[in-house]
Amino acid sequence: MSESLKLLAGDNGERRREAATLVWNETLVHRILKLIVLLEMEMRWGLLSLIVGCCFTVMKVLEVINADWSD
């Protein structure tokens, strides 16, 4: 008998919640949702990096334009 099923057999409410969590964490649906969340977080960081990079590039271009006009 798996550890999660042994916990479900207990009468303690806290143990049942722990067991339900273990059972949920072993499901394919949980793994897929976890993967989606991780990918979404990674995409957000990628988008943030892209925005910061674009802002930095625009600032540098404006500095060059300003330097050319002040000569």
List the helices and strands and how they pair.
Elements: H1 3-9, H2 13-25, H3 28-70
Task: Give a written overview of the molecule.
There is one protein chain. The chain has 71 residues and is mainly alpha-helical. It has one domain. It has 3 helices and no strands. α1 runs antiparallel to α2. The longest helix is centred in the last third of the chain and has 43 residues. The radius of gyration is 26 Å and the shape is rod-shaped. The relative contact order is 0.07.
List keywords for this structure.
rod-shaped; 71 residues; mainly alpha
The poorly predicted ranges are none
Helix content percent band: over 70%
Structurally, the number of domains stands at 1
Global geometry: rod-shaped
Number of strands: 0
Helices and strands, in order, run as HHH
The total count of helices amounts to: 3
Instruction: Give the class from helix and strand content and strand pairing.
Output: mainly alpha
Q: How far is the first residue's CA from the last residue's CA?
A: 81 Å
Radius of gyration: 26 Å
Amount of beta strand: under 5%
